[in-house]
Design a protein that fits this description.
The chain has seven helices and four strands. By secondary structure, the protein is α/β, with parallel strands linked by helices. The chain has a four-stranded parallel beta sheet with strand order 3-2-1-4. It is globular. The chain starts with a helix and ends with a helix.
Length: 152
């Protein structure tokens, strides 16, 4: 039990460090790309603009979960983007702290297997929708996928 408490506190401290370093406030959204499902991460990046628009954000922080230090090109968006590379253990601690206490409304994690009743994971397991629609509906809370909106 103490180990779990320390783990959650560590995740909250990681959040505070990110919040201060990247000046995270409500004009910014945070997207944590877990790196478990590449198609899911790509779809999340593709629809990040719609998520930022829904949250009335003027910027975003993308947290890339990676165990190796790599140079990742920063994606182009019509708003300010900051990129952060985070080790897997730190990202899991951050996610567990967020699961314990939802400290920020404008954050999205692309984990599809944590926890077991994860809405994003459920949508993908049922197989009725693809990764793009799962991101729009289950992760970003959009009413419908933007392609379906444009086609009508």
């Amino acid at each position: 039990m103490w180990k779990d408490i320390v783990h959650v506190l560590h995740g909250y401290m990681i959040w505070q460090a990110l919040r201060l370093k990247y000046r995270i406030g409500y004009p910014k959204v945070v997207l944590v790309l877990a790196g478990q499902n590449k198609e899911l991460d790509a779809a999340a990046l593709a629809y990040l603009g719609y998520y930022a628009e829904r949250k009335y954000a003027k910027g975003a922080v993308i947290v890339l979960v990676s165990d190796d230090d790599c140079n990742v090109p920063k994606p182009e968006f019509p708003f300010h983007i900051q990129l952060c590379i985070c080790k897997r253990k730190k990202a899991e601690a951050l996610y567990d702290a967020y699961g314990f206490y939802k400290f920020y409304d404008n954050i999205a994690f692309t984990y599809d297997n944590r926890p077991e009743d994860n809405l994003l994971g459920k949508l993908l397991k049922e197989g009725l929708i693809d990764e793009k629609e799962a991101v729009c509906l289950g992760l970003f809370g959009l009413k419908k996928a933007p392609e379906a909106e444009e086609g009508r």
